[in-house]
Amino acid sequence: MSMDLHINAVLISEKGKKIIVRRMISDMGGQGFVYLVDYDGEKKVLKWYKEEYLEELRKRPPLSFGVNGHRRRIGLFRPTSVNVEQAFYDNLCKNTAVWQSGKVPSSWNFVWPQDMTKWDGREDSSFGYIMDWIPSDTYPTVEKFFVFSERFPSREVMLTACLNILRAFENLHNAGYSYQDINEGNIYIRPDTGDILIADTDNVTQDGYGFSIKGTDGYKAPEIWMGEVPSAASDRFSLAIVLFRLMMGSAHPLEGLYSLEMDDPYISQGKDPVFIFDKTDGRNQACREMHRNAMIFWPQYPDYIHALFYHVFSSETIRNKEKRPTEKEWIEALVRLRGEIAGCPYCETLVYAGAGMAVPCPACHQTETVSPCYLRYQTQNIPLTAGRIVYRCQWDADCRDFREPFLKIVKRGTARYFEMLHMSRGDIWTVIYADGTRKRIPYGAYTPFSMGMEIRFGGKSFVVMGEEWY
After folding, report:
1. Distances (CA, A) of 330 to 20, 45, 191, 326, 388
2. CATH class, range 142-331
3. pLDDT reported for residue 67
4. Residue 50 near residue 26 (C-beta atoms within 8 A)
5. Which CATH number applies to 371-466?
6. Which residues are CB-contacts of 237 (< 8 A; sequence separation ≥ 6)?
7. At what angle do helices 232-247 and 327-339 cross, to 10 degrees?
C-alpha cells in the first residue's frame, strides 16, 4: 500500500496491534494522509506517508555517519551510510520508543508517535505512525486564529496560550530535542482556556541532527534558508514568529514593504530579513494596508516586550542564532505582561498597565492611571483591581500550570481584601503592615490591604505600593 488507504483496510503495527482504517480526516498535501483508525479497540489517528514524499527522501544523497560523531545526524555512531528514507523511519521508531518509555509525559502537550506500522523497506511500500486524536472543534490550529475564524475571549487567554506553547518547547529543548518545523499548522489551541497541543512530532530529532525536515516558508530561520541543519536555536526563531503573530493580530514580523517588493522569501526571510518595526532599518517598515492590527497593537505593549522582539529580529541576532531569547526569557516577560492587564476605568477594555502607569485605552482613547495601587514583586507591578487573580507562576518559576491561582483581590463594601486561593492546608502568610505590626493569615482567610504592607510567603516578599483610592 503505497498511496492512500481504503476504508476498512487492516494494518499490523510494530507492537503487533491490529489497525483498522475508518475514514480519512485530511490530506496533508505533499507529505501524507491522516486517518481515523481503530487501534486495537481504541480510537486513534494514523498518519500515512505518501509515495511521492518517500520517493523524494530516497532521491536525497545518503547520510554518512562517522565514528567521531561529526555527522551523527540521527544518532548512529558507526561508520556507515543510510538512505534518508530509512533514516526517517528509524527516527520515527526511536521517537515511538521514547514515548513508550514515558520520557515524554503528557503534561508536555506533544502528541507523540505511539506505534509504527510494519514496513518491509521496499520502495513500492509505505508506512505511518499512530498518535492520539485531536478534536479539531475543541482544538483548532493556530492558523485559524490568524485568519480570524477563531478568536480568544481575552488578552489574558491569548497570553496563557503563548505561555503554554513556550513551556512545551522549553521542555522539549531541555530534553535535548529540536522540533525543526514549528508553524501555524501543527500547534493547536483551545480558545476558551489557552490550553495547547502540538502535533507532527515525526519532525522531532535529537538537537543538531537533521535529515528530512527543512521547515515551512514564513517560519524558517534565516540559517535554514541558507542550508544549515535545524536546531533548538532555529526553533526559537520560528517560535518568535508565532508569538508575534498571536500578539499582533496575525501580522508577520518580516513581511513588510521590502519583502512585498522583493517577492522572494529566500532574500526577504533568509539572506536579508528585516523586522517591520526595526528602529534603524526602515526598508521593510509596516504599512497600514498589510499591518493594520500590528500598528494598533504594537504601541500598546510595554518596552520590555518591544525589547525582546527587537532582539530576536535584529540583524545581529538573525546572524548569531545563539543570542536569540530563550523560552525562559519569553516566559518571564509574558508572565509579567499577563499580570499587568487591567480594565480601563472608563470602558473596562483590557489594557496593559503596570506600576501606576497612565495608559491610553485603545477603545475609548482616554488616558488614565488604571490602578494607582499595585503589588510589587521583583520586576513585576501587578495592578490591584477588584477581581484580579495573581497566579502562582508569577512568583514560582517552577510552576508548570500558568492558570493556577495564588491570591485574588475581592471587594467587600468599600474596602479591598486579599483572598488566599489554592494553598496547601496549613500554609500561612505573614503580613507586615507599614507601622511594623505583624499578622499571620491562615489558609482560606481574608485580609484587607493597605499601602506599604508586606506579604511574606515561602521565602518570597510582596509589597503593596502606590496610592490609596478608597
Report:
1. 43, 33, 21, 7, 23
2. mainly alpha
3. 36
4. no
5. 2.60.200.20
6. 221, 222, 312, 321, 324
7. 20
Domain boundary assignment for the chain: 10-131, 142-331, 371-466
Report d(CA 38, CA 40) in Å as an integer: 6
Question: Distance between CA atoms of 59 and 70, rounded to whole angstroms?
Answer: 23
Judge contact between 330 and 282, C-beta under 8 A: no
- Radius of gyration, alpha carbons of the chain: 25
The span from the CA of 149 to the CA of 105, in Å, is 31
Q: Please state, in angstroms and rounded to a whole number, the distance separating the CA atoms of residues 298 and 364.
A: 17
Name residue 367's beta-bridge partners.
Answer: 360
Spatial distance between the Cα atoms of 276 and 306, rounded to a whole number of angstroms: 12
**pLDDT for residue 40:** 94
Write down the pTM of the prediction: 0.89
What kind and span of H or E run contains 36?
A: strand 32-39
CA 70 to chain centre: 31
What cell does 319 get? 546572524
> What's residue 354's pLDDT?
62
> What residues does 110 pair with on adjacent strands?
198
pLDDT along the chain (470 residues), means of 10: 80 96 86 94 95 86 49 42 82 91 86 94 89 93 95 94 97 94 95 96 86 83 91 96 96 92 85 93 90 91 94 89 95 93 70 63 67 81 83 86 87 75 67 91 81 87 73
Residue pair 373/415 in contact (Cβ under 8 Å)? The answer is no
Point out which residues pair with 448 in neighbouring strands. Answer: 417
